[in-house]
User: Fold this.
Amino acid sequence: MSVVVSTRKTIADLDGPNGLPIVGNLLQVNFEQFHLHVERWCDEFGPIFKIRMGPKTIVCIADSDEVNKLLRDRPATYRRRSTIESVIKELGFNGVFSSEGEDWKRQRKVVALALNSAHLNQFFPQLLETTRRLQRRWEKAADQNLSVDLCRDVMRYTVDVTTQLAFGVSVNTLETDGPVIQQQLDKVFPMLGKRVNAPFPYWRYIRLPKDRELDRAIAGIETTVNGFITDCRQRMQENPSLYDEPTNFLEAIIAAQTAEQGSKFTDQEIYSNVVTLLLAGEDTTANTIAWAGKYFIEFPDYFAKVRAEVDSIVGSDSLVSDHNLLPRLKYLEAFANETMRIKPVGPLFPMETNEPVNLMGYELPAKTPVLALTRHLAINPENFGAPDQFNPERWLNPQSSATAPHKTNAFLPFGTGPRFCPGRNLALVEIKMALAMLCRNFQIELTDPTRKVEEKLAFAMFPANLKVKFTRRQ
Assistant:
């Protein structure tokens, strides 16, 4: 009698780092550098492997074609980790970023309409004024020879831009201490990252001081934002022309809600998406600008080329004063792309399966956590030539033998597929405006060149210890 041997491979057959009973690999990682741990394991175990974080087994994948397929197969076959949605639901702002299925489809259409190019062009004068405020802040720092925490400064900039875009309210944290809501938003992202990665949802059973502080912050945000929504509705009733020509995100999303008869886009979803925009606009764009500032310092020859381009395009102005000039900043855009290739704000992309799937030959049951190593794709020599070298010119001449191959499907700072980031255009406009202004007006250097700038992960990846000094350009 012959014996039939099954050739099916399961999660149990996947290789991965050795761990301890019960806790698995949990004690081997520092969550502020979690992305670095899994990237090193990927180098050791290959493009698909597993890790165990307490009771959870997570399948990690770093194959560009497979990751693109995963992202395109959302929201049907794959979804964001359900932990993300449950944690954000508890906090009360389950918007287009974290929602799934039909909830996501309804919200996506309205949010994309509110963030389209026409609305961003209408918003440009306010963005221009906020960029001038950042310029004045750095001029003051230069004149007083101050050390500047670059992350904190550009975060003030993105908060001001996003709040103006969201509500039509100029909070001006760049020149004042700013409103309380900015301080409240600062408390959300770090705690969100901790809760999403926690092996056990302790906060549902016991509230630590940080959890109570988060509760107070969320309550304050809800009061403030709902007040803005009430005021906005009243303003639009008094001036119906705002339904046809909205001046900010909140007006645009209310107008879209009114136009989308039968969409059932609720007031709670308006609140959720406004808060989502505030959070996403504060940290992610700011971190990209900060990393680019570091590379300006590290690569003065590339900085000089960006500056020459900016000088030639803006003429006698001190910054880009016409939104039609932004697409002409090709070298600056290449510099930003190279920054996002090496220092993406989202180096990891957590998902899970909605149904049983076959992933690279392994059978995964429904609800299997899957972690895409998106940064690892972009620094893999199979996808980009000389991947450890910062070279923006690879984006201007992708066929160059010096930087080949150049697989753009391994470059995913905004995702891909149906859930491609709807805020991409806004982010790129902010990045170009801030960096062009910096090049045009300042020299920049590290306050302490001996102090290492480190990667830290707190839901988004950011540069720690990035203190700089500005000098006015002569």
